[in-house]
Amino acid sequence: MIFVNHIVKISATINHMIKTNWHTHTKRCGHAIGEDEDYVKAAIEGGLKTLGFSDHAAYKTQVPTERMNIRQVGEYMSSIRALKEQYKEQIDIYLGMEVECYLSEWDTLATYRKELDYCILGQHNLDLDFISSYGLNTPQQLSMYVDRLEYACKHGLCDYIAHPDVCLYSYPYMDESVRKIAQRIADISITYNMPLELNTGSGVHNGMHSYPDGERYAYPTRIFFEEFAKKKCPIIIGLDVHNPSLFKTDRDINRALSVVEGLDLNFLIDYNLVEAAKKRKALFY
Nearest CA to 284 among 180, 162, 173, 153? Predict the structure, then answer.
């Protein structure tokens, strides 16, 4: 495990610095493009040595623009496992999902937890199809969001928290209520030794957004990572790829790194998430 503490050490090209990505989607989610094999080929071309697929988990209801259909899960698993075998001499491939902490779906989540190599937590709604994390705008809603993260970590559901600051997508001000939420997430990370993700996906890919207190990327957000730096929370860079071509460009990762420039972050490079997942799976309940 390599700890990288300064942006100057990590702002080199993806080809030279980032050899692992655990956050990769497929077209089954309805907002990604390309075939599964296209992602593998592009990852190899981009210099990756480890590729984790973590498409959006399916549940009992269907939302074709957000997540795969429950009937696609078997085919998804078969496809990624076949690619793992086909490309085993060129890249290590692992099968995961990006899940949410939905108590109504716990039986389904238990099945995923058992069958997959790993799970990352991307809490896109507070509850299944109810209150989008992209629309939170009160301190009470932010607190409810963090409650879900804490429950997931306590119960062994996930192996890292994806875009922990997605809850700020619509939040109008980076104020003390936001800092308190960041502190709670940092405490959760330390308590459960849970890595947090510096996400280089759509939050930076789509450019700056205008908010009442100025312009910023929707996520990642500096105020969160200031608190994560203070507590030395483990940080994983997640490319959150929805297009194979993004494995071959540095633009979005450099945008994300610009947000946290100068912070003494505890980056994990080439962290073995699957080995860590084996231990966490035993804690799931």
Answer: 153
CA-to-CA separations, 6 to 1, 113, 265, in angstroms, rounded: 16, 34, 7
Going residue by residue through the chain, which has 285 residues, state the pLDDT in tens, using 9 for 90 and above: 223 333 434 444 333 568 999 999 999 999 999 999 999 999 999 999 999 999 999 999 999 999 999 999 999 999 999 999 999 999 999 999 999 999 999 999 999 999 999 999 999 999 999 999 999 999 999 999 999 999 999 999 999 999 999 999 999 999 999 999 999 999 999 999 999 999 999 999 999 999 999 999 999 999 999 999 999 999 999 999 999 999 999 999 999 999 999 999 999 987 899 999 999 999 999
CATH of 2-281 among 1.20.1250.20, 3.20.20.140, 3.40.640.10, 3.40.50.2300 = 3.20.20.140
Q: Where are the alpha helices (DSSP H) in the chain?
A: 7-10, 14-17, 36-45, 73-86, 106-115, 139-154, 176-191, 202-205, 222-230, 251-259, 273-281
Sorted by where each begins, the domain ranges of the chain are 2-281
Nearest residue to 165 (alpha-carbon basis) of 125, 209, 194, 196: 196
Q: How many CB atoms lie within 10 A of CB 63?
A: 17
